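Would you be willing to look carefully at the protein I have copied below?

:::
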Amino acid sequence: MPLDFDLITAATAYSIKQLESAEATDCPDLLWLDNFIEPRLLDKFITFITTEDLEWTPEDLQETAPRLKVNWVFDSVIEEVHTVFENLTTVINQRYNRNNRFNGIAIWRDLPGYIIGPHQDRDLINLAIQIYVTTGPAELGTKFNYNNQVLQTKYLVNHGYLLDNQQGVTHYLDTPVPAEHLRLSVYAVWTSN
C-alpha cells in the first residue's frame, strides 16, 4: 500500500502542536503527552496492528519478559507513524537544545503478566516518547520516581510521555498486565549524534 504523504504532513503538524502544548510535570525531565497522534493516523495504525498478521519478536534485553515488538513494516501505516515521529526531530532538538538523531520506533505488545521493575533507560537513549494505543486499568500507566514522589502516566489511548533521559529518571510498571489484555504502545527514541 503506498504511503499517504498528505496524512503524514497533517499528522506531523498535529503532533508538533501537541508537543508544544505538552503538560509539564513536577519532574523537569518528563512531559505528559495527551492526544498526541493525529486521530485519522491513529485509527489507521490501531486497525493495522490489531488485524494484520505481523511478525512480533521479543524485545531486546527483555527476552524473558512477555513483551514483543515490531519495528518496521515497509509501505505501511507503521512507516507513516515512523515518519511522523522522525519529523519531530527538529522541534525536539530546539526544545531541548540538542543535536539528536531519530533512532526509530518500536511497537510494543505487552502480554498478560508483563511487569518491569524500577530501571533507568540505557545511556544510548537521550530522549524517548511512549504513546499508548490501548486503554485499561489506570495502574498500567508507566510510573516515574522523582524527588520521593511517584508520577504516573495516564493509561489511555493516545496518551503518554516524553522522557529526557540525561538524568536517568527511574521508571517502572509494577502492576502486571491483566489476563485477556494487551498493552500496546509506540515507543520512539532519539540518540546523541
Remarks:
- Residues 5-192 form a domain with the Jelly Rolls fold (CATH 2.60.120.620).
- The longest helix spans residues 5-20.
- The chain has a mean pLDDT of 95.
- The chain is about 25% helix and 30% strand.
